[in-house]
């Protein structure tokens, strides 16, 4: 007999085996769908995290920009040294005008609320202006604030603080403001000039608009108290007091001042 070479096919699975295979395929498909959904959720979460980080970083950037942007008030604050002492005053707390390398130094101790200081400026102010315009005499204005009790608003302190606020604007501006304060000196036992008037006088003298917040915020208030006390500790007993090369004058008329200066120059 010839040999049957027809390939033998595997037997068909029975109904039970076919059902099992179908379940396996359905389970595999379901698992694949679940995996896809999990992956999609992970992608959504990652996108949300990324967006959140971007929002946070943008917010931080805006905050830093706002902190660093500055305005006029920040500029004024930056002009006030950390010590709270005006950068333009010398070791005595005096604002220096006139000769940079003087042969003679005149120191004038004043209070902006002092009526006799106002009289001194009216009588001797022009002589001091002449000295300031030259190159041999230095005039140092050592303003103090001890007459707060003579007003209801601590005008001496507020005026001296305003003077310090104007100092960064330069000597010419400060001198105009100094003159304006005495020309507009308020009466004793009154309210004193309001801040709005001090600001107006400062701006008319040539100070920038930013001087307004300095005058109202009074960043030099503590300095006005300390420089006043230092003057009294150094022997000042009232205002005006005039020193020529460190020697206290008995009077403050133009003739007395000129005689003292001429004597000092002759040495």
UniProtKB/TrEMBL annotation:
It comes from the Bacteria. Residues 94-263 form the Thioredoxin-like fold domain. Keywords: Disulfide bond, Membrane, Oxidoreductase, Redox-active center, Signal, Transmembrane, Transmembrane helix. Residues 1-27 are annotated as: Disordered. The chain crosses the membrane at residues 45-67. Residues 15-27 have a biased composition (Basic and acidic residues). Signal peptide: none annotated. InterPro entries: Thioredoxin-like_fold, Thioredoxin-like_sf. Belongs to the thioredoxin family. DsbA subfamily. PANTHER family: DISULFIDE BOND FORMATION PROTEIN D, GLUTATHIONE S-TRANSFERASE KAPPA. This is DsbA family protein. It comes from Nocardioides fonticola.
